[in-house]
Amino acid sequence: MPPLPCAELHLHIEGTLEPELIFTLADRNGITLPYADTADLAARYAFTDLQSFLDLYYSNMDVLRTEEDFTDMTRAYLRRAAQAGVRHAEIMMDPQAHLVRGIPLVTCVGGVAAALSTSEADFGVSTSLIAAFLRDRPAAEALTVLRDLIAMEAPIVGIGLDSAEVGYPPSLFAEVYDLARAEGLRCIAHAGEEGPPEYVWEALDVLRVDRLDHGIRCLEDEALVERLIADRVPLTVCPLSNVRLRAVPAIADHPLPEMLARGLNVSVHSDDPAYFGGYLDDNVAALVDAFGLSIDDRARLAANSVRSAFLGGDRRTELLAEVESWRRARHSSPAG
Ligand code: ADE
Ligand code: ZN
User: Would you say the pTM of this structure is higher than 0.70?
Assistant: First the structure.
């Protein structure tokens, strides 16, 4: 039975660096890592919160030096994503995390974009690129980087906001989002992962986002839930990430079933799959194990992902038809 076809909408390309690739790139670039081997590195992936993950995530990026490194990382992700059933991927990257290490935009953006430009031919996965800004760095820096991306005509469809959330409310970045919108870029932002519901309100009302990353803490504010339902705001939810970063205690406590039942426009994604124990298919499998998600629920999540993507009509129609075929085939197979 083929995997559930879906769109990956919440994926940090730097979060796809698997331990093996980290060692390969370190070797290629003459870097000595502070870990004995891949097992020693993987043993450090016991996170206590978002910051404990971010510390390792940024540190491991040091192995990304050349355009080829960025291309190889992206191609490795696309190969694995295709196996997971991903048919379209909107991929975030963190340009500032590379600029601060002295890696120019042309190298990091060019390397990722090179892999994306042939993703449909190579892996059957249509793709687009989103530049995410680090909210724990100054907004003025984000504005400069956005202007540079626009000036170099970087092949981005939108902007995002990520990194340490608490203490860095979305409103700090109003000017960045105003410029992005004026340039015709789509706008997304992480909000309500560790941060409070107020940050989700700000992402909606100040940044005027088209889509929210995480947003799980919206359930603490009934008026916010009603607003998200009324406007059908897409929420890209990442269950394994939420468990690993202790935003929820265990998968059995994850609010996804409640979010679905409330009629929120949720879809399931993988965030940083190399760090959190799995790709998109693993996230869906964890939900199926924990909650016995039905075939129709799975198809609904996949259809939500396709409808929430920044996709043109033809590709959207094609992918929705694939989801419906999967649903019908699953219903008629004994394994379904
Ligand atoms: N950057 C990479 N993964 C992230 C996450 N889960 N939250 C915030 N910033 C991130
Ligand atoms: Zn994320």
Answer: yes
